Amino acid sequence: MATDDRVELGLALLAHAEDERLPLPEAVDRLESVTNDPTVTRTILDEAELRGLVEREDGIIRPGSRRRVDFGSQVVHREGEFECRRCGAGLSTGHFVDLETDELGPFGPTCLRKVLGRE
């Protein structure tokens, strides 16, 4: 995945963060489902602030819109051999999130909730 694609996917993920306030380490943990490159992560965070998707202050991120991912229409389940993008566990059912710009996944059900801020 190209850097620009990872940035756009990370921005979409932050735009769908459901938290009122998100400590920076938790935001970085979620962004690791998009990239492990610290430069790309910083670019995502900087660009999210520039675009007004989040506010950052004292290590806290406040998402602007808190759009919720609709589990009925935006989460796709696929059967197969997958590895969770967050924890690395083997999966027979992968959960993928359609975030307008691209699809993010696969995740197991628990990691999916963590990445979306529902846990």
Succession of helices and strands? HEHHEEEEEH
Task: Please tally the β strands and state the result.
Answer: 6
The coarse overall form would be globular
The N- and C-terminal alpha carbons lie at a distance of: 28 Å
Radius of gyration over all CA atoms, rounded: 14 Å
Number of discrete helical segments = 4
Measured by DSSP, the beta-strand proportion falls in 25-35%
- The percentage helix is 25-40%
Total count of domains: 2
CATH architecture of the largest domain: Orthogonal Bundle
Output the CATH topology of the largest domain. Answer: Arc Repressor Mutant, subunit A
Organism: Saliphagus infecundisoli
Protein name: DUF5830 family protein
Pfam families: DUF5830
Quickly list its features.
globular; 119 residues; 2 domains; alpha+beta; Arc Repressor Mutant, subunit A; 3-stranded antiparallel beta sheet
Structure notes:
With 119 residues, the chain is α+β, with helices and mostly antiparallel strands. It folds into 2 domains: 3-63, Arc Repressor Mutant, subunit A (Orthogonal Bundle), CATH 1.10.10; 75-116, no CATH class. It has 4 helices and 6 strands, in the order αβααβββββα. The strands form 2 sheets. A 3-stranded antiparallel sheet has the order 1-3-2. Strand 2 (54-57) and strand 3 form a beta hairpin. The protein is globular, with a radius of gyration of 14 Å.
